[in-house]
Amino acid sequence: MFRSSWYLFLLSINLLQAQSFIIKSNPSKETSLQANMGLDMKTIQYNENKSGEDFTSVMQMSNQPIPKAKPGIAVVKVMAAASNPIDFKVMGGFLTGAGWSMPFPFVVGYDFSGVIYDISSEDAEAFPKDTNVFGVQWGQGKHDEEDQPVGGAFAEYIAVPVSRLSVKPDAISHELAAASALVGTTAHQIVNQCANVQKDEKVLILGGATSVGMIAVQLALQNGAKVWTTASPRNKEFVESLGDVNIINYRQDKWWEMDDVQNIDAVIDTTGEEGGWEHAQKVLKADGSFVSIAAFDVGFDPSGHAPKKYAAFHCLANDPVVQNEIAQALANGKLKIPLVEPFYSFTEQDAKDMLAAQAKGAHTGKLVMSISN
């Protein structure tokens, strides 16, 4: 018996030495060996901030352990993820001065849709395993929340606070659900909460063909407002399809000098247009509202420009109640968000191409990546 135990011990030592030799003599084998030792999901991540034309060069496909569920945190198998301008802005380090948490390596993406893969017993009643869910991995009015995950949508699995999850309606695809979360919630908040758009009010939306702008136009029209919006000639036909909206060719016309764009109740800036706040003051009512999601020059205090009802930069606050409302409107055909097809695939090159296209901004509609089938 002693000989047998000693033989097994020597055999195990030889196997470990052989494995070490394989790794040292053939580094290309290291990844697959590590993957078999627990690194069993793929992610698209970066380890440093990068801006400029080659900003996507820092993105790489990597392996990480699949996260584990715990009370308050579910693990979702990601079926689709969407990109947003904030992705390349964060990657470029443009918002580091805002005090946002930026853990490296950082897994790209905030919008996701997928299936509950792992969940604690206390959370399973609301979100049973295999439930189709979606959401945005974002904080409350800022990029992150203390001790909570942030980003991570460009991955096969994502750990998400259950407080951020919504059940995906069967009538919409995972791709559409992922595309709706961040932009839909943002548009809803700036139209219905910040600007508080009411029936018969006059509203100017800067950027009617942007992902947030196109939803804001539809929501303002549904509230009964009279809407003006800026758009390029290329997007004129698309914006017209959103409803009865007055379109301003921003390449030709200065909206702040137009006679019919006066006594405006609310100006909503989705583009960060240069001089947007300065020009808005020329057309707004004395007690009107101005909200921007892309420029800081107005400041961050909604009451800081009295007698304006609201005048400030707005940052998304995660809100599953709003996510539910947007998703149901999409399912019922009361709201539309076009998706750019074909969808991107879950490869390093496609992820880089997707973010490069997002930064270029020459598309109309949401860019989406299909991750799992």
Task: Tell me what you see in this structure.
The protein has helices at residues 2-25, 30-36, 85-91, 174-194, 211-222, 236-240, 276-283, 320-331, 348-360, and strands spanning 41-46, 60-64, 73-82, 106-107, 111-118, 132-136, 157-161, 166-167, 202-206, 226-231, 245-249, 264-269, 284-292, 310-313, 344-345, 368-370. The chain has two domains: 41-168 and 338-370, Quinone Oxidoreductase, Chain A, domain 1 (Alpha-Beta Complex); 184-313, NAD(P)-binding Rossmann-like Domain (Rossmann fold, 3-Layer(aba) Sandwich). It starts with a helix and ends with a strand. Helix 4 (174-194) crosses helix 5. The chain has 373 residues and is α/β, with parallel strands linked by helices. Mean pLDDT is 89; it is low at 1-38. The protein contains nine helices and 16 strands.
Properties at a glance:
six-stranded parallel β-sheet, 16 strands, Rossmann fold, alpha/beta, 29% helix, 373 residues, seven-stranded mixed β-sheet, 22% strand, 2 domains, Quinone Oxidoreductase, Chain A, domain 1
Number of strands: 16
Rg calculated over all Cα atoms = 24 Å
| Helical coverage, percent range | 25-40%
**First-last Cα distance:** 51 Å
Q: Into how many domains do the coordinates divide?
A: 2
DSSP strand content: 15-25%
Number of H/I helices: 9
Task: Fill in the CATH topology of the largest domain.
Answer: Quinone Oxidoreductase, Chain A, domain 1
CATH architecture group name of the largest domain? Alpha-Beta Complex
Secondary-structure-derived class: alpha/beta
Q: Would you identify the CATH H-level superfamily of the largest domain? A: Medium-chain alcohol dehydrogenases, catalytic domain
The SSE order reads HHEEEHEEEEEHEHEHEEHEEHEHE
Q: What does the overall shape look like?
A: globular
**Residue-averaged pLDDT, rounded?**
89
List segments where confidence is low: pLDDT < 50 over at least 5 consecutive residues.
1-38
Described by strand count, sense and barrel closure, the largest sheet is: 7 strands, mixed
Pfam families: ADH_N (PF08240), ADH_zinc_N_2 (PF13602)
Organism: Chaetoceros tenuissimus
Protein name: Enoyl reductase (ER) domain-containing protein
Signal peptide: 1-18
